[in-house]
Amino acid sequence: MSFSQIDTYKICPLKYKYSYVLNVPVPPNHALSFGITIHDTLRDFHSKLLFKAVSLSELLDIYEKNWQPLGYVDEDHRKIQFEEGKKLLEKYYEQNKNDKTIPFALEKTFNLKIDGIKFYGRIDRIDKLDSGVEIIDYKTGATKTQEDVNKDDQVAFYAIAAKEALNLEPKKLTYYFIESGTKISTTRSPEQLEQKKKDVTEVIGEIKKGKFDAKSGLHCNWCDYNNICPFAYKG
Ligand code: SF4
């Protein structure tokens, strides 16, 4: 399993069933394509930086090579988003060009078991701190508030993975919102991480029991299955 499967179940168990039990295919999604493009670009950019200086034009070349064209409404939409991506990377370059930090790991994969279930995932970036590490997740969506990040499940999952699968001490958990250039950090205590593991175990238990009731609401508007789901919120 992946932690995003747990997330999907918590949003709506029926959505989980459509996606991971019935494997109902969905059309390509432009937000996903754009997210993958930016993540791959930053991975390649920082990997190159480990060996030599990288200019802005080289970064934009990397972007062009990693561009994922699927899921856009039409050619105009694709072009507009491509230009937006360039602006966003120019900003990222400007913000980071003097940063000499050498990442401890980029796109670090992990495997761990919770309640007998194997989890697989990937952490965008890990930086060493004086004591412990900083987990960094790049985000291409809207910037969240500090309050939202403090409650966010994904960084907590990464902290569990860093601790248990990679044997690291996650002292700082950071979202880097690329569009706004904002970094928001949070922390989780060992007790909070234990609680999160219990939550995951509970979700696994519900999945094992085959409980896939619909949980409709405003989020149905962004659900890939709202055209076929009889419970989709129509408000
Ligand atoms: S449309 Fe709503 S109720 Fe139906 S699967 Fe999606 S999120 Fe669940």
From TrEMBL:
InterPro entries: PDDEXK-like_dom_sf (IPR011604), PDDEXK_AddAB-type (IPR038726), Restrct_endonuc-II-like (IPR011335). SUPFAM superfamilies: Restriction endonuclease-like. Gene3D superfamilies: 3.90.320.10. It comes from the Bacteria. Residues 1-230 form the PD-(D/E)XK endonuclease-like domain. This is PD-(D/E)XK endonuclease-like domain-containing protein. It comes from candidate division WWE3 bacterium RBG_19FT_COMBO_34_6.
